[in-house]
Amino acid sequence: MRTLETLIKRVKKDIDALSVEAGRAQAAKNDIIAEQAMQAASLEAEAGQFDGSPMTALGMAAYFDRQKARRAQLATALDYAEKAYEECQKALTSAFAELKRLEHLVAQEKLRARHEAEKAEQAAFDERSAQQAGRRSY
């Protein structure tokens, strides 16, 4: 019984740690999405300032190339963050299933102990009744 309670405490601690990690992964996803939105807005603002001159076109081409590379980096980072979040969610799901299984085992053990106590009590009552019935018949 104590072993099960210890396991439950450990699983709860794991759940807490996984919840923190899932929160971090979600925050990372949100940060990347926000950065992608800022980059898109910045790119649109810069493109709006393009006046069509050859010198500006050279600068804009380099700027657009850097932004394209950054967009690819952000997409890769977002993929990693999403995978990390999904892994945390899967781990949390299995940890919660393990917790419920352990709690069910503890409940069964308590029920079994209660039934054994009731059996012992009933046996004591039966013994006492048999003794009293034996005394009355004398």
Summarize the structure.
With 138 residues, this protein is mainly α. 95% of the residues lie in helices and 0% in strands. It has two helices and no strands.
C-alpha-based Rg, rounded = 34 Å
Structural class: mainly alpha
Q: Which bin fits the share of residues in helices? A: over 70%
Main sheet: strands, sense, barrel = none
Mean pLDDT: 90
**Count of alpha and pi helical runs:** 2
Number of strands: 0
The helix/strand series, from N terminus to C terminus, equals: HH
Number of domains: 1
Dominant shape: rod-shaped
Low-confidence stretches: none
What is the percentage of strand-forming residues?
A: under 5%
Q: Span between N and C termini? A: 47 Å
3D architecture notes:
- This protein has 138 residues and is mainly alpha-helical.
- The protein has one domain.
- The chain is 95% helix and 0% strand.
- The chain has 2 helices and no strands.
- Helix 1 (2-48) packs antiparallel against helix 2.
- The longest helix has 84 residues, at 54-137.
- The mean pLDDT is 90.
Core attributes:
138 residues; 0% strand; 2 helices; mainly alpha; rod-shaped
